[in-house]
Amino acid sequence: MRGIEAAGVCIPRLRISADAVADAWGRFSGTGIEEKAVPTADEDALTLGIAAAEAAMAEGGVDPRDVSLVSFATTTPPLEEEALAPRLVRALGLSESVSVRTHAQSTLSGAQALSACLSATSPALAVASDLPRGDPAGADHPFGAGAAAFLVTDSAAVTHLDSATYVDEFPGVRYRERGDDEVAGLGATAYERDAVRTSVIEAVNRLDADVSNVHAAAIHQPDTRTPTRATRGLPLDTEPLRRGTVVDRVGDAGAAGVPLGLLSGLASARGDDRTLAVFFGSGGGATAMLFEGSADAGLDDQLDRGERIAYPAYLRQRGYVGGAEVAGGGAHVSLPSWRRSLDQRYRLVAGTCPRCGSLAFPPEGVCPECHRNVDFDRVELPRVGRVRAVTVIGQGGAPPEFTDQQRRDGAYGVAIVELSTDDGSATLPAQLTDVDPETVAVGDEVRAVIRRIYEQEGIPRYGVKFTPTGT
Amino acid sequence: MTEAYVVGAGQSPFGSFPDESYRSLFETAFERALDSVDGGFERERIEEAFVGTLGVGGRQLGLSGPAVTEHVGLHGIPTTRVENACSASGFAFRNAVTAVRAGLADVVLAGGYEIMTDTGSDHTKWWLGVSGETEWERLSGTTFAGVYAQMASAHMDEYGTTAEDLSRVAVKNHRNGARNPNAQLGFECTLEDATSAPTVADPLTLYHCCPTTDGASAVLVASEEVAREVTDRPVRVAGMGASSDRVGLFQRGTLTGIPASRRAAERAYDEAGIEPGDVDFAEVHDCFAIAEIVAYEDLGFCERGEGGQLLRDGVTDPDGALPVNTSGGLKSKGHPIGATGTGQIVEAFEQLRGGAHTQVENPRYGLAHNVGGSGGSATVHVFERSAEGSA
Ligand SMILES: [Zn+2]
Q1: What is the pTM of this model?
Q2: pLDDT beyond 70 at A201
């Protein structure tokens, strides 16, 4: 049966409490949200999505080259226009002939991505990743961040029982004007509640199944009260709704909200327990999906591992204050040059010298050992290695192209990391992330993560950074 | 092959000079070099010039050699700009010596210049970063200090070198620089000052890093015949070595040494027919304190990992067995990138003629060591005082 073979999640490591936001503004407009996840300066919809997708692929039994469809959903793409999924394809090492779709413009896009994969006939990867922004005085209060990824196949642990959709015009509940990066709502409370409830109930009623006995229900969740209000009239108890709600700990994760709620429900499900997911999008419409089975994507582990920050740090990390364009430009690496190094930046592709066996990274020019002009054999380096040298670039000390990141995220570490294979080892310089750089020492074990490196000529560039494994 | 001699050498003051241009600073260095030749020297005798500059700030990226040689009246001679980052004028000097030794010219000028303090800090950082490896090293977010800090972290981990050892470099070089009127940071500092200064790139503090500097330097290289004619005290270029390597620290086999320095030193010693123990003083490339410690080891002044001990034992103090950076070094005298290599040779020239500000007692052999970037290039030159009447 077609359904979810494996899933992965990514919740940014930083958190802010609702109390901290309330202290800053004298109120907090995110009912029931206790804390929310905060993306750091080098995280965005793509990097969160890659991390979730990597986890799903590692959990599942599908060769990356056999994935035939990637569907990526977000309301916060790093660029307003430009396909996002091809970057995911390169980062994950998927096939060049994979179909790619990017779903955007609505919180309903998470459902569209998952639906596309469920209706396909071969292995497909659905990724929902989001980090909405809004006016810090109010609209921003509930906004968190996160990503969920689903590897969809025909031999799934979680089977897809049915889907149903309802569409009607309900504008203005949650929208973003052209050229604006902050989400707004009309604030017409009664109208908005009715739009969500009507859409949700109509979609669920169109399912060819009884939902009264579901184990969990992940309902459109901009706050903790909406799932209850939107399902009033449906035979759903509070307990299933609680199991499918993560907004209280993640914040409103936009297009990733219901997907994360779905994974929360699947994690506590047993045997043939059923889990309902209902996505709503302003505009309007809703999609309901019913699944059977269980899957643990490690969501609880990630939720338990947060690091709390204060409100000023939150404003910096999210770029509400501090970020800036810096005069003087940066070291120029042209986009074509950068593109040629993608295999190295994402997949750590090195070269083995066919003559003397030594490793070259990047695999360019002559062999670093025997100095002969050889055709290197391609080899992917392991993604875990050791720090061989390390320093900390303090606040204010970064090169211009890293000033924006540094203003937002503070001092960062730069290491020379050694990655060893049976044939020898290669070293590369890389930034450290998700760690207090002062705590990293020579000899520490680190693992690769894909993050935003910097932006040049308006184009964000992504590649490998390292974070301690903690062992 | 004819021998090559240094017959004159001069530098502008190193520092921050808003009222000077790269041309005026070069002119000062050049005139001082002419004046340093006993009895003066006619500029018309100079047949060729090699000028080192990185071009920080981008002021005259093209034809940056002729831009200064024409300014000082070297009209019409072949002039070549040499770019090898911080070792630009070490290599300019190498070219000058090569031209004289090959018999292509009897008098060749080697020099360099840089203006680094008249642009905004971001603009300057942009330019400094470009002498590291760009695609990987720079885009890991590191700075120039950061790369040497990485080297320091590895050296400390492998050999137990300490932050205090790094500070000893600063204390010694500042003490020397305080006696050099041409030094940019001509003041003394204590171990405590150096160790407790703000961190630039852990473990390097502000006192472990050279400043950004405006300055110029010029050296006159002559054949034996001309040297004999114009001075009784020429300085012989006894040995010359140079080497290149991969530009990024991560691309080289070691994180705790600079292989290009080792190879350059071996060649220079070999040509001079001396051992490291024969060197009476050295100007080494101490852009960051760890660089001086690593240089001791690469130049054979001590075993690998013993650089810190050499400092602790006072061996490289002015009254030690092997004084290093009596000029104040890059740390205190300053580091105007393109002018640094020939600036070191100015100090060697003065030491071997007995006129240095911190004079070593009766030296015979002096060494100058100039590194580009974090070790992508290096030159080592050994100089010998002329025995009475030998030239
Ligand atoms: Zn080889």
Answers
A1: 0.94
A2: yes
